[in-house]
Amino acid sequence: MKKVLLFLLMAGCACVGNTQIVTPTIQGRFGIDADVQHNIFVTPPCSDCDDWFYPQVDNGNNSLFVIDTTGAAAIAAGYLANPAANANIPFYRKMRYPAFYQTNQRTLIDAVFVRDYHDFDQTAFGAGSNKNGDSPGLWTGGSGNMLQKNDILDTYLHLRRQGPNYNQTDSLWLFGAVAIEGTNGDRYFDFELYQTDIFYTRSTGKFTGYGPDAGHTSWKFDAAGNVTQAGDMIFAANYSSSKLTSIEARIWVDQALLNNPPANFDWTGTFDGASNNSQYGYAGIQAKNNVPFYFGYENTGAIWAGPFLMPRATGAVVTQYAKGQFMEFGINLTILGLDPVSLMGKTPCGIPFSKVMVKTRSSTSFNAELKDFISPFDFFLPPMVDVTADVPVFCGATGISNVSVVNPYSTSLYTWSTANGRIVTNDSTSITVDKPGTYVVLQTLETGCPTYAADSITIAYDPSCVTLASNKINLTGSLNNGLVNLDWTVTANNEIKYFTIERSTDGEHYTLVGAVKRGDSHSAYATYKANDGVFGLLASKVYYRIKVTGTNGEVTYSRVVELPLAVNNSMVTLAPNPSQHAFSINIASNTEKEVQVFIYDVTGKLVRTTNAHAQKGYSTIKISGLAPWARGMYTVKVLTGNSVFLQRILLTK
Fold it and tell me: Residue 520 to residues 475, 525, 528: CA-CA distances in angstroms?
């Protein structure tokens, strides 16, 4: 039975310091030089330091680039062939390495590149007093032309640890960058980091999924100033006179807590909420002893814009960011007191946030009018462990079963255990067992990390069962309008007396739901069908297996078929998830109704709509043709009558 353990997302923050570095530098083995490629402005050259991109030819040393460039040539060709049609289409790319990838004195946790709308922007703040201290529930989104110095073009984000050790001697670094259309005047932007699954719907211009404390998740502390709950945070950057002038770090807190000093950082005395008397708001923090914690730089000359090229508001497609267009910064979260090693007694395996939103402001004031934004996008989402067994039931006292992880993640560690079974061999992602029992696997994202997820499977024992070694049984199943359709084949039909259909809602305990007699005994190979009604079954999944009884009384079992159902009383599920080229939307309904489906990419762009009719019972809407789509997370919104369902689906290679 699947048991997903809580993965605590640590929250981080940013602060204002009296000192900062505003010249090109290497920190955390990463270039902070307002350039997207390796060692252009930093001298002497570093042969083992990383950046966002390389030119298309690797320079042959030990440096890495962190952003996946899959599809760059096709995107660039599309811009050049038809810029009017393609230049204003946003997209994103994740890190080109798996999360927690370790190599040569650094640990790459995650990275993302997001290209926003250009010129006529589909994700911009509408007229009104939208500001950082507001609840996202009060913000109003819309579309329109942006003032160029407020128009976001590209955004970059990367989290890494400098070194292979999980302690504070290996600093945790957050790197960010942004390219803005305008190159004249001062520029002001924010990286806001959320603990909740905040989401923006373009059709309504509204945000949902924000935190419970006046629209955010608040930080909490004990009497000694230690963090007991991590919350939302924001890095507010101000660029003027062609350089970074400040990065302000703030966390969302109850104003009453400002009377108590935190253990790991200091308050700066600033606090801004929705009004002067707000209970909750963003409070500024700084590193202990006011140690410099951030580094930033603005490009002082034209630089390469990366392999995806750069569409400009003029309609031109260029290969370079213009002077003053690209701004880059790095923040040492360890110095700032936000390393998970020092927070709440946790290991350094947590990350500071789960969703990111990038915004621009009209002035240096933290509560200045918000202008452009990139819809909240996911950061760090490895697959949770899922296991299966090729022989779920031992016929007789002994047997052999291979239990394996269905979706192994290359940098995760898998630890197996059993209280009542026996593991014969173990190669991390699979085990061989020779005794009935329950087998549990724990997934950790790296050595020393807490458990990220877990799954278990039970190998049952049937004392009256003897293996029918010569019979091969293949079982498949599908869900349609409240009915599970089961199809199976056998290779020694003449040896069979009858079939028993068994169902489970937890993958462990099965009950009888039907029986099927053997068909024509003259044919060795035979196919069979059966169905089972499951409408109203309150479970997230349903499991089926076929028990085969032979003419001599011997028994064997098929493999288990697992099918998704509506979770609890939720009426909508997506399957398979993750998916590659297509998936199904399964809808449970007590009445006939019309259904509208909206699918959004990570930037909030509506990429597909579908209208369908749901019958009473279960209905399935097929979503196909996804092979050309960018790999990554999408949000599916389903409207059925007065109900709205939001679920995410991951598209994989």
Answer: 19, 10, 11
